[in-house]
Amino acid sequence: xxxxxxxxxxxxxxxxxxxxxxxxxxxxxxxxxxxxxxxxxxxxxxxxxxxxxxxxxxxxxxxxxxxxxxxxxxxxxxxxxxxxxxxxxxxxxxxxxxxxxxxxxxxxxxxxxxxxxxxxxxxxxxxxxxxxxxxxxxxxxxxxxxxxxxxxxxxxxxxxxxxxxxxxxxxxxxxxxxxxxxxxxxxxxxxxxxxxxxxxxxxxxxxxxxxxxxxxxxxxxxxxxxxxxxxxxxxxxxxxxxxxxxxxxxxxxxxxxxxxxxxxxxxxxxxxxxxxxxxxxxxxxxxxxxxxxxxxxxxxxxxxxxxxxxxxxxxxxxxxxxxx
Length: 324
Prior knowledge:
Radius of gyration: 21 Å
Order of helices and strands: EHEEHEHEHEEHEEEHEEHEHH
Number of helices: 9
Shape: globular
Largest sheet: 7 strands, parallel
Strand order of the largest sheet: 3-2-1-4-5-6-11
């Protein structure tokens, strides 16, 4: 305690120390946002991707072919403290899914064991790892995963490879099970990305035949997902080994999402002429994530309304089309 008459001087905290971060899948729809978020915070970011962007800001390295020692050398040279695995995607063949979702994770884990200071690994998994659930279910992390599709099974195998290595003490991983994402840069391989491509040249009065699943799913803006990734990278060591769901905690009708995208494009809802047909899905017809653990462990919550996300998605695509 200070003596009488003395003042207690409170010093402002110093600036946050920059972190060396590597992002795998740096040129993908999620990876680009993750790179930008860490750079905006003053961190030193090494982007790694199979294909470099037009700006050429990523290290070109095919993670499906690179040996663990090669990846370890690149990460060590960067003095990497955090690795974000944003690889994978909507690949179709069983071989491609195993390579993208399982082998790359296994090679990353193996690479981390070769490094003098193993990094924390933030792995972006998917809510579909839990498998189909009854409508109305709030999906929490205690649920035993029972995936039914090749996509979901391989994504789970990749997540489990990291979790097993972390439990064995040979890795330091956190798994974020993310819901479907939307927003700027959404890939055309996704449902909403495909819808955007279908309507981008539509004129008022035109009709577009389209099959839309009679489903309700949890969707999240990609920038909110990115915020969760950054928070997981900086969270206390007690979060290592955790599985954390990331979503909005809402189940939204697919038709409503399409209508919001149409509104962003200045088109009426009847632009879409719904067709009856079977719809193939990577997961179940209902997803709604319990996101309380993300709030507790990461201090995270979604901030972007879905109609605003889809509006930004449309304007971003329109800008890119005009520049092409």
